[in-house]
Amino acid sequence: MWQAIKSVLAAFLGVQKDERRREDFRSKRPGTFIVAGVIVGAAFVLLVAFVAMMAAR
């Protein structure tokens, strides 16, 4: 799962190499990346909400 999270983070930042992306989808199930994407996306939204709340104080 850690490898999937690292791949999702690289994809979110736009720095993942095409070769690595192809390797990920050849070797892993898509569900792993979907779950990792939801987790990383939710963490990002929560982080932005937290920073906005702190800035509004």
Q: What do you see in this structure?
A:
- It comes from Halomonas saccharevitans.
- InterPro entries: DUF2970.
- This is DUF2970 domain-containing protein.
- It holds the Pfam family DUF2970.
- The mean pLDDT is 87.
- Helix 1 (2-13) packs across helix 3.
- The chain is mainly alpha-helical.
- The chain has helices at residues 2-13, 18-27, 30-56.
Question: What's a quick, concise take on this entry?
Answer:
InterPro entries: DUF2970. It comes from Halomonas saccharevitans. The chain contains 3 helices and no strands.
Shape: elongated
Describe the largest sheet: none
Question: Which secondary-structure class do the elements indicate?
Answer: mainly alpha
Quote the beta fraction.
under 5%
- Give helix % range: over 70%
Helical run tally:
3
What is the average per-residue confidence, as pLDDT, rounded to a whole number? 87
- Radius of gyration from the alpha-carbon trace, in angstroms: 14 Å
Protein name: DUF2970 domain-containing protein
Transmembrane segments: 33-56
InterPro entries: DUF2970
Keywords: Membrane, Transmembrane, Transmembrane helix
